[in-house]
Design a protein that fits this description.
With 304 residues, this protein is an alpha/beta fold. Helices cover 47% and strands 14% of the residues.
Length: 304
Amino acid sequence: MTPHPLLTLTDEVAAALRDGRPVVALESTIISHGMPYPQNVEMAREVEEIVRQNGAVPATIAILDGVPRIGLSADDLEVLASHPDVAKVSVRDIPYVMARGTHGATTVAATMRFAALAGIKVFVTGGLGGVHRGASESFDISADLTEFSSTDVAVVSAGVKSILDIGLTLEKLETLGVPVLVEGSDEFPSFYSRSSGHAAPMRVDGAEQIAAVMKAKWELGIAGGVVIAQPIPEADEIPAAEIGGIIEQALADMDALGIHGKEATPYLLGRIVEITGGASLTANIALVRANAKLGAAIAVAYAG
C-alpha cells in the first residue's frame, strides 16, 4: 500500500516499505513518558539497533512540529527524550497536536494507527494498556484495546502493564475478538514478571507460527490487531509476589495525590522506579530489548 500523504517517512523506511522489506514500528511514549533521561534516549537508540541487527528496519513513530513522522533521526530522538513539552498522544489527540504544530509522543493506540497508515504490520512496545484497577467505578479503560479491534497491526509486548487489571483486560480483548498469543509459555506474562496467574489464551512457539496467524487472520479479512505477549527474560524479571506490594503502594500514593486519566500510567511507572531503587527500570529496558528481537524476527517471517 502507499503510505498516507500526511505522513513523513525517512528515506530508509520509505525504501524498505516500497521494496517489501521487513519494517518494525516503535512507539515514542516510552521515550518521553515511560523512562527518565538519558536512559530513555539510550534505550531508543539501542532498540533501533537491535531491530537492524535482526534483519528489519526500525521506524520510531511520533509527531514533531505537528507532522506525523514514521522513522526518526538521532536528533529527533533526543528531542523526544529531553524536550519539556511533549504531549502524550493517543488516537483522539492526533488532530489537536497536528493542528497546533506541537510535539507528541504516541501511545500504543496512536502508534498502531500511524503504522497502519504507513503500511507497517509489526510494532514493538514494552507493555500494553488495558482495563485499570477500579474501572467498574472510574470507567478507565485504555484506548489501546479498542484500537486492537479495528487496526491491522501485530503488537509485541511483555503483556499488559502490571499496574492494570490483567484478568479484565484479557476478558475485554476476547470480547473485541482480538487474538492473544503468548510466545513460548502457557501462562500470560505480567510485564515485570513472567507469571500473572492467567493462562495463555493461545500459545505460539517462534516467529514463523506468529506470522502464520497474522497471515491467516488478515487474508480472511478479519479486521483488527494481534496481541503477541513475550515473557520478560527470566534473569531480568521481578517476581510477581515482590512487585505486587510495590504496585499497591504506588497506587495508594497516586490516589492520595488525586492523579488519574492519562497522567496515571506515567506517574505509576515513575513511582515504581523510585520504590524499587531503579530495578523496575532495568527490567523495563530488558523486556523491550527482548521484544525488539522477537518483533524483527516476526517482521522478517511475515515479509517472507
